[in-house]
Amino acid sequence: MSSKVGTGRKVYDAAIQAIKDWEHLQLGWNVTTQPALKPGATICSATQTVVPWSVLPAQVVYCKEGAASLGAGNKGRRFSTALCSLTGHQLAGEERFSVELHADGSVWYDVFLFSKPDTLLALVSLPVVKLQQIRYVKDSAKAVQEAVKSV
Fold first, then answer.
1. Which of 6, 27, 28, 145 sees the fewest Cβ atoms within 10 Å?
2. DSSP string, the chain
3. Per-residue pLDDT at 51
4. CA dihedral 35, 97, 75, 11 (to 10 degrees)
């Protein structure tokens, strides 16, 4: 899901900093440890979902920023980072978070995730898990929008 978070290089830089500071995952019902954002770093989220709180370990797969082709005639910049779930997570999958600065100056935040149940609890509660994932994506976008609001 992509959402426009603002316009200009300052907003782009602020959105990147929000991700580096893990603000995009501090959602009230989901909180995450905040190690330096670099490949190999392990994070752990505590998420209020089907059971009162689930502990969900993950690892940073990559973190990169640079020039990007964002469609026909749309050269800009993209920052992205990805996480993969680790043993003990309820789901097996990956999440990618990216910020794009388009040629017109617009700044977009995007979350892409895919997963499958990795525990019996996740399997039997899959409809609820899918609803929580939708909430997670929307609330993450709101957190980034909030982080860049004062720029």
1. 28
2. -EEEEEESHHHHHHHHHHHHTTGGG--SSEEE------TT-EEEEEE-SSSS-EEEEEEEEEEEEEEEE-STT-EEEEEEEEEEE-TT-SEEEEEEEEEEE-TTSEEEEEEEEEEEE-SHHHHHTHHHHHHHHHHHHHHHHHHHHHHHTT-
3. 65
4. -70
Residue pointed to by tokens 């907003």 = 11
Contacts of 146 (CB under 8 A, 6+ apart): none
The position carrying tokens 């980034």 is: 144
* Helix 9-20 vs helix 126-148: crossing angle, to nearest 10: 130
Cβ atoms of 143 and 6 within 8 Å: the answer is: no
- What are the residue ranges in the chain where pLDDT is below 50? none
pLDDT of amino acid 151: 87
